[in-house]
Amino acid sequence: MFLGLYNYWIVVLLMMIGFYIVIAHGNLIKKLVGLTIFQTSVFIFYISVGMVERGSAPILAEGISDYSNPLPHVLILTAIVVGIATTALGLALAVRIKESYGSVEEDEIQRQDQLNEDKS
Amino acid sequence: MVIAIAIVRTRDLLAVVMLTGIYGLLSANFFVVLDAVDVAFTEASVGAGISGLLMLTAITMTGRKEAPRRHKPFLALFVVLVTGSMLIYGTMDMPYFGAVDAPVHQHVAPRYIHQSMEEVGVPNIVTAVLGSYRAFDTLGEVAVIFTAGIGVLSLLSLPRRRRAVKSDEATVEQMHERHMVLRIVSKVLIPFILLFALYVQFHGDFGPGGGFQAGVIFAAAIILYTMLFGLETAKKVFNPSIIQLLAAVGLLIYACVGVVSMLNGANFLDYNVLADDPVAGQHIGILLIELGVGITVAAVMLSIFFNFDGRRQAQQHCTEQKGEHDVSRTL
Question: Does ipTM come in above 0.90?
Fold first, then answer.
């Protein structure tokens, strides 16, 4: 009965995997990978919402009357490129953190911060 | 799909990055199945290409191994399960997959589908929406990309140094000398990749493609060149400061198109007035802004990569020097 909703369940599954990586892993790079997965799940959500049964890709052609909804495609198309730009920013931050702390593990960074506070 | 992710959860970082590439490619396939060819194109070039590359470069700097897990994952698992089941409960009211009468398809989409041919005259509806109906959104997104590029630049760029030591350069040369076959083959390939990027750029009105994809592909070609011939050579060919300038120029072209149409008495980014015929005006407008998008995306991706790679080489250089010192001390 609910089988028509399976696309949302896949999305939720992917999203939760990404979410789990973000909150359960300490490594900053791994967290970014988790975020990427989360992000992609949102993309899939949008695209699958825009899908129309027996529709075709939204490029006008002779003899086709049903098209998928083009609006989600536009949004996600730009979102992917923006996503990679922000991921690059995150990676850059991770690199700088590695340089100043010598580690990209969350608890290690926190420990060092604690030490510095105790000293001052 | 799900399998790929299940593996992503459990491996060490290098494998994780490889798997992310596979995952990107798989989701691109998924998008093709869902009729989103433009999106699939972008995801294939970004998710499977550039993002993996950037992550690899980052990993060489931050270390490959993930520390063994110390905190207990049960709490996280619990949170995830609760959120997930709540989300699934939330989907119960959603329209079925592929339903034609879903609310999403009722509002603006019919207009885009039925009238874009008369109003914009571009067969690819995605391009029409991206470049014309929602051009303002796209301008914002290009600005975000530009800003992210500046962010990476300010985080990673190095103070301008004098030329690197000769011996160092010689070793780099040698290293690149070794991959003779690779170098020749890709030297042949690179022009075609660039040509393909241009095709994608200018054919975006008729088939899947457009400025975003073309920019990424263009950048990928140059990154390939950089990987094979070394950063120094690539920097000689593509001057980094010119690339940074180009990133700004692309955004500027985009905004200027908007201003020009304003000067002609229409709204910001309303291209109807750019030519005598509204449809021709739309064509010119879309072509110009796609050009701006392409330039900005390519330039930002390139400068991000150059900065990562430059940083990495500087670090390696430092550690090498340290190593030499240590050796001399022990001697």
Answer: no
Task: In whole angstroms, give the CA distance from residue B44 to residue B46.
Answer: 6
Residue A58 located in a structural domain: no
Query: Which residues of B fall within a CB distance of 8 Å from A1?
Result: none
Query: What are the backbone dihedrals phi and psi of residue A67, each rounded to the nearest 5 degrees, phi first?
Result: -125, 155
Structure tokens at B315: 């670090």
Of all residues in chain B, the percent with pLDDT exceeding 70 is: 82
Across B20-26, average pLDDT:
78
Tokens of B130: 């991206």
Q: Is the pTM of this model over 0.90?
A: no
Residue A42 to residue B258: CA distance in whole angstroms: 31
| Average pLDDT rounded to a whole number, residues A30-39 | 85
Residue B70 — pLDDT band, cuts 50, 70, 90? low
Q: Which site among A71, A76, A86 would you substitute to test the B interface, given the most B Cβ atoms closer than 10 Å to its Cβ?
A: A71
CB contact residues (below 8 A), chain A span 21-50, against chain B: 21, 23-30, 32-33, 36-37, 40, 43-44, 47-50
The whole-angstrom distance between A115's CA and the closest CA on chain B is 19
> Is position A104 within any domain?
yes
Number of domains present in the structure of chain A: 1
Rounded Cα distance between A43 and A80, Å, is 8
How far is A100 from chain B, CA to nearest CA, in Å?
11
B50 touches chain A (CB under 8 A): yes
Q: Does some domain include residue A60?
A: no
Q: Who among B91, B145, B308 is closest to A8 (CB)?
A: B91
Task: Report chain A residues whose CB lies below 8 A from the CB of B149.
Answer: 85
User: Whole-angstrom Cα distance, residue B298 to residue B283?
Assistant: 22
pLDDT digit string, tens, across residues A3-16: 667 778 888 888 88
CATH of residue A113: 1.10.287.3510
Q: How far is A68 from chain B (nearest CA, A)?
A: 7
What confidence tier does B125 reach under pLDDT thresholds 50, 70, 90? confident
Domain that holds residue A12: 1-52+67-118
Can you give the pLDDT at residue B176?
57
